[in-house]
Amino acid sequence: MTHVVVPSDQIVGEGVLSQNEKPTFKERLKRFGKKYFLEGQKFTNEDARTPVIPPGASSLQRFALEHRKQLAFIIPPVFMWTWWWTYAIGNNIFHLYATRYSMPITMFFGAFIGGMTCEGGGAVAFPVMTLFLRINPTIARDFALMIQSCGMTAAAFTILYMGVALEWHSIIFCTFGATIGLIFGIEVVDPAMSKAQKKMFFVSIWSAFACALFLLNTQRKRKTYLNIQQFCWWKGVILVVTGFFGGILTSFAGTGVCICSFSVLTLVFSINEKIATQTSILLIAGNAVTGFFWRAKILHAIDELAWEYWKCTIPVVVIMGPLGAFVGSHVHRQTLAWAVYVLEIIALISGFLIVKPGLGLSLVCVGIIIGGFAFFFVMSRLGLYLLGTYPDANKPETTLPIENKNSRDIAET
């Protein structure tokens, strides 16, 4: 038998290009799609990625473990739809769709974006209701809390059931601060603000957050972590204060703790963006339930219009929220970032065109954006300083296990 030895540099594996061969447009498009839309999920450890079937497991246990991702998406809407259809048929609410169809259509996209990004569905509901539908900001805020108590909790269940990585320090400490901030904001801050201020402060603060995301994406090849390193009391205080201010934002806009948590986790504590996003979704879900309870059961102050929109929109968000969370756990961080950029640019331009704020309010809004950018820049510098204090600062980054094996060969930029 004759053996032919071929130099290793002349061997081209299947789907691998030689050094002198340029990729075709189709191949570049395929690689682009894999990188930005099929990156794969990040898990706490390898065991979470590959479920282990225990010996003697029943057929039901085996099915649940083998189809974890599918069940994570299916269970929330099945549960919520069962409850909603029972209520809808018993109370004959279908006639409301003749006049309240706008928000189900809006939240078809809003819940998906809320589940996919760190902004929450309220980031779409509030500006649409206040800027385009000319609805009172208080009603819009209440609706945002109400609908996120369904859509974001459904998305949170999907995240928890899939077993993807989360930052539990942030969930615990930010939730504590956010609860206090939300109640304080509803009782003190929100009544002191005018309608125009609520609308313009919302778009300005969210535009400042887009600046934070931009700063984050300028840090190429940065080292990221699964959880906060060397956690201590002062880092817990930072998270509580972050949650407090996030709760105040939620008190007049219906969402806010999510972007505060995301900014601090990524810029200061160098947490991976996907983990920060998934953590933020759990935070806004808890904050929304708290706000809904406070407005409905403690103050009994929710307007009938908000209730009607809520009843019509529930069956939409309980599907699109989990779907957004599922998709968001797979796509590249820059894909999520560009989705936020586009949303905030549209909201900012629409805010100035529709509200037409006076000179004083306009200057305040510009100041919020510039001041926010400066604040987030300082946060990013602090994060770089803390990064150098960690014991493994000079060690190569350990990549989290990911579900999509093809994405392991794709370098993050």
From TrEMBL:
Keyword Membrane: yes
Pfam assignment, any one: TauE
Membrane among keywords: yes
Entry-linked InterPro entries: TM_pro_TauE-like (IPR002781)
Topology in membrane: Multi-pass membrane protein
CC per GO annotation: membrane
Transmembrane segments: 71-88, 108-133, 145-164, 170-188, 200-216, 236-269, 281-302, 308-328, 335-355, 361-379
Cellular location(s): Membrane
UniProt entry keywords in alphabetical sequence: Membrane, Transmembrane, Transmembrane helix
Protein name, as recorded: Uncharacterized protein
